[in-house]
Amino acid sequence: MAYFTYFNKINYDIKGIGGDLQLTAITNILQRVRLKSEFIDDRVFFSEYFVQDGQTPESVAYDFYGDSQLHWIVMYTQKITNPYYDWPLIYFDLNKFITKKYGTNGATNVHHYEDSEGYEVDSTASGATPITNFVYEERINDKKRNVRIMKPQYTASIVKELKGLLK
């Protein structure tokens, strides 16, 4: 099921030429619903999964559900609101993101220092290890790789609930 298939249609004047009203039925992409959070909060409905570099919500949905259009269920279970930055970036895009955020040579600059146990410390602390901007951002990105996937037997219930909420 394509995510927007069940969204309501609204009449909208797309052309808006010279005061002539020309209504066209379009999908109301601004419509919002909230599915039951019990599904998200109860571990029994999920399998743990590690997203490999280059995998998208669409490819994960295809691998688990046999339908790439159920990618929205993969994103919903992660509480993703921004698919570009809430999903793990591929290595190439991570490099571009770091360059944009920290500048051309900023990837190798020190972001902070850590002790042997991984706690952030002052640079003067004994045994302090410098953590570069690249390593810092890569760690954040890698944390996004551990996802929960809704077990396939429950997807029909999620789709049914979405349809009901959008009516």
Summarize the entry for a quick read.
This protein has 167 residues and is an alpha+beta fold. The chain has helices at 38-41, 57-65, 71-77, 91-102, 133-143, 155-166; strands at residues 9-13, 23-27, 46-50, 110-114, 120-121, 129-132, 146-150.
Structural class: alpha+beta
Give the strand line-up of the largest sheet.
5-4-6
Helical percentage: 25-40%
Strand content: 15-25%
Can you count the beta strands?
7
Succession of helices and strands: EEHEHHHEEEHEH
Which tags fit this structure?
alpha+beta; three-stranded antiparallel beta sheet; 7 strands; 33% helix; single chain; 167 residues; 6 helices; two-stranded antiparallel ribbon
Task: Write up this protein.
The structure is a single chain. The protein is an alpha+beta fold and 167 residues long. The protein has a domain at 89-143. The chain has six helices and seven strands. The strands form three sheets. Strands 5-4-6 form a three-stranded antiparallel beta sheet. It has a two-stranded antiparallel sheet with strand order 1-2. A two-stranded antiparallel ribbon has the order 3-7. Helix 2 crosses helix 3 and helix 4 packs across helix 5 (133-143). The longest helix has 12 residues, at 91-102. It starts with 8 loop residues before the first strand and ends with a helix. The mean pLDDT is 89.
Element layout with pairings:
Elements: E1 9-13, E2 23-27, H1 38-41, E3 46-50, H2 57-65, H3 71-77, H4 91-102, E4 110-114, E5 120-121, E6 129-132, H5 133-143, E7 146-150, H6 155-166
Antiparallel strand pairs: 1-2, 3-7, 4-5, 4-6
Helix pairs in contact: 2-3, 4-5
